[in-house]
Amino acid sequence: MGKIIFYEDRNFQGRHYECSTDCADLQSYFSRCNSIRVDSDYWVAYEKPNYMGYQYVLTRGEYPDYQRWMGYNDSIRSCRTYPYYRGGSYKMRVYERPEFGGQMMEFMDDCPSVYDRFHYRDIHSCNVMDGYWTMYDQPNYRGRQYFMRPGEYRRFSDWGSSSSTVGSFRLLVAVIGPSGDIFYCRMYQFQHPQAHLQITSGPSTSLTYKLPFAKLAQICCVFLDLSAQPSTAVVTATAF
Q1: How far is Cα of residue 60 from the mean position of the Cα atoms in its chain?
Q2: Which residues does the UniProt record annotate as the domain Beta/gamma crystallin 'Greek key' (predicted)?
Q3: Phi/psi of residue 232, each to 5°?
Q4: What are the beta bridge partners of residue 151?
Q5: C-beta atoms surrounding 15 within 10 Å
Q6: What is the CATH number of the domain that holds 66?
Q7: How far is residue 147's CA from residue 134's CA, in Å, rounded to a whole number?
Q8: Who wins on pLDDT, 146 or 237?
């Protein structure tokens, strides 16, 4: 079961409320939210009651102030929880027009600039076939966030947006280690004999590794060997 703790003040101070299930109205538990701890599972926090307003996609870790979750203000009024996605594939199709019309492009990896790859700034419909994704209205994973789970989105209002503008999107990938630690990884298409990979454990820990292995022109998922210390950790790439 997932767990999230909301705090009224920064750095996990002040009145707090612990939640382990969806809640359509948090107003009676705290008046403002300036820090959050996520213990497990994915969470989507909403600015307004009934899952309305700005969305904030949260993974396990500590957020000492609302800027850490790219918040626009200190208002959190509802939340939803989603279990870790344990499937092995990620696939999403985006469309130029509503109802899956116009130009279509299929994605299986992160996209820091929709315009550079799709050649359109507007996405009017979308079919998430596998995995969890986060959409952003600006390039490079900035701006308003929208949590996308498997399903058909026939118009942009279906994912909670008031505009068809999409600047970027990326996968939510969790690797559960043997000790129960959760590492959030990215999917990459390796094009060079050596590549740099960033692995994060929540928002506060970031480890970068240089991977010397043969050229791979396919999608890979990278796992961290949690039995070693971070300074000597072994990273292996498994193609699928």
Answers
A1: 11
A2: 2-40, 41-83, 131-173
A3: -125, 20
A4: 128
A5: 12
A6: 2.60.20.10
A7: 5
A8: 146
Structural domain containing residue 62: 3-82
- Residues 6+ away with beta carbon under 8 Å from 67: none
Any idea which of 48-57, 84-93, 149-158, 164-173 has the lowest mean pLDDT?
84-93
pTM of the model: 0.76
63 pairs with which residues across the strands? Answer: 36
The per-residue pLDDT for 183 is 54
- CA dist., res. 197 & res. 42, Å (int): 22
What does the pLDDT average to over 29-42? Answer: 95
Q: Is 10 helix (H, G, I), strand (E, B) or coil?
A: helix
Distance, CA of 83 to CA of 79 (rounded, Å): 14
Are 75 and 33 a contacting pair, CB within 8 Å? Answer: yes
Residue 42 CA: distances (Å) to CA of 107, 169, 174, 180: 22, 16, 10, 15
On the question of pLDDT at 3 being above 70, the answer is yes
Alpha-carbon span 69 to 17, nearest angstrom: 18
38/74 same-domain check: yes
pLDDT value at 162 more than 60 = yes
Q: Based on the structure, what is the number of domains in the chain? A: 3
Please check whether residue 180 lies inside any domain of the structure.
no
> 110-142, pLDDT tens digit by residue?
999 999 999 999 999 999 999 999 999 999 999
Distances (CA, A) of 59 to 34, 88, 232, 234: 16, 19, 25, 24
Kindly state whether residues 100 and 167 are assigned to the same domain. Answer: yes
